[in-house]
Amino acid sequence: MAQEETTERISSKKTTTTKEENYNNGSEKENVVDPEFFSCLLQPATADSDADYIGIRRLLLFRKVESGYRRRLDWRCNGKGYVAYRNYIRRPRNLESLQSPSLQSTPGNSGRWLQSSSPLSHLFEVDSLSSSRDLRSSNHRTSFSSSISDSDQPRRRVDPAYSFVGMHCIFDQCKAAVTVMKFGHMSSDILAYGASDGTLTVCTVSEPPSVLKQLSGHSKDVTDFDFSSNNQYIASTSMDKTVRVWELSRGVCIRVIYGVPSQLCIRFHPVNNNFLSAGNANKEITVFNFSTGRIINKLVFDSEVTSMDHDHTGQLIFCGDSQGCIYSVSMDSHTGTLSRAHRHRTGKRKSPVTTVQYRSFSLLAGGPVLLTCTQDGSLSFFSVASEIQGYLTLRCSLKLAPRVHCIRASFCPLLSLEKGEYIVAGSEDSNVYFYDLTKPKHACVNKLQGHRFPVVGVAWNHGENLLASSDLYGVVIVWKRAKTT
Predict the structure, then answer these.
(1) CA distances for 138 relative to 208, 347, 444, angstroms
(2) Of 264, 300, 326, 359, which has fewest CB within 10 angstroms of its CB?
(3) CA 182 – CA 173 distance, rounded (Å)
(4) CA diameter of the chain
(5) What segment(s) does the record annotate as region Disordered (predicted)?
(6) What is the DSSP string of 35-58?
(7) Which of 55-64, 198-207, 213-222 is predicted with the least confidence, judged by mean pLDDT?
(8) What is the mean pLDDT of residues 152-171?
C-alpha cells in the first residue's frame, strides 16, 4: 500500500509539472508581439479622441500595409511586371462594370481604345509581356496606358491622331542596349537597330515580323548608322574607330574604313550616295568616297561632332557637338568640299547634342525646320533659312528633365501637319512621350508605357503608322497607331 501511494504521488507531481510547463510555454507564445504592430498601438492619441476608434484604425492601417506587401509578392510570383501592377492598382474598382461586354480585356480585343462615351476612355491595355527575355511566352502579360498630361492625370478625351491600338511586334533577341534605330528610306517595313555590343540587326515589321540579317563586325558600341537611298546598303560608325559598309542582300561587310578617333555619327549624301559624311571624336567631319573608302575632305570644329543630318538638297549639313553647339555647313554635291557657315548655341549649359533632325517643311515655320535635342533635356525647334546657307532661327523650345543616357528624339512629320509641332522622345522613366513644342505649359500630349528600362531610341516608319522604340535592356517595341480619317 505504501508503495502504491508513493507511486501515485510521483505521477500526480509529474502531471502538475507538465501542466505548469504547458501553461508557461503558452503564455510565452502569447506574449510574442510583432514590434511594428506594438509600436503602432503605442502611438500617442489626442485627449479628445476615442480610444477604441484609434486602436481599431491603427490595427487596420497595419494590416493594410502587410496586405499590400503580400499582394505585390503574389503579383510578382505570377510573372507580372511593375508597369502592369501600377496600371492595375490605378484602375477604378468598378472598371469592369463600366466597360461593355465587347470591350472586356481578352486576348482577342485587348489593346483597343474604349469608346469615347465611356468615362474611362483614356485607358487601354495591351497584350504584351512583362519579362523582356520571355516576351514570347503566352503567360506573361504587361499593360500600358496613354496619358496626355505631365502629371499622369490624363484628360477624358484623347486626340484620335495619338491613339495607339497596341504593340505591333516586339524584338528581344538583342543581348545589349539598343542605342540607335531607324526605318529604311521611304520604307514602312524595314527596320534596323544598332546595339552597344557592336551588332546591327535588320528586321521586317510586315506580317509576319522577323529578323532578316544579323550584322556582326564592330567590336564596340554602334554609335550611328544610315541607309543608302535604295536601302541596299548600310553605313555604320562605332566606338571601335571604324566605319563599316554593309550589303544587306548578303548580310556581309564590304568595306572597313579605319580611323584614329571614335566615329560618332554618319550620313549618306541624299543626292550623291557615293559620299559618306562621318563625325568623330577628333572634332572633325570627314567625307569619304563610298566606292573606294578614301577621304575626300575634312572640316574641323570646336568639339566632338556627336550628331548630324543633311538637308533634302544635300547642299547643307547640320551637326551638333559635345558642347551644345549647332553648326550649319555648306557642302558641294559634286566635289564633297565643306565650308562652315553658321554656329548656334542651344543653351547656356555645355551639354552634348544627341539629336539633329532636318525636315523640309513645317506649317509652323512655313519652310524647312531643324530639331535638336541635348543630353540636359533641351528640345529646340529652328526654322532654316536655306538662302542664307542654313541660318537657324529659334522658333520654340522645351526644357525636360536632365538625362544620364544619350536619349534621342524625333519629329512626328504627318501629325505635325495638323495643329502644332509634335515631337516624340524616349525617357529614363521607361516611357515614350509625345510633346507639342507650341504649348510649353502643357507640352506632353501622350505617352506610351511598356518598356521596363530607359527608352533611348525612337523612330517612325515612312507612313507614320508604326513607331519603334528601344531601351537599355535590348528590347525593341513597334507600336501601331490607330487609323484616323
Answers:
(1) 17, 48, 33
(2) 300
(3) 17
(4) 130
(5) 1-30, 134-155
(6) HHHHHHHTS---TTS-HHHHHHHH
(7) 55-64
(8) 65
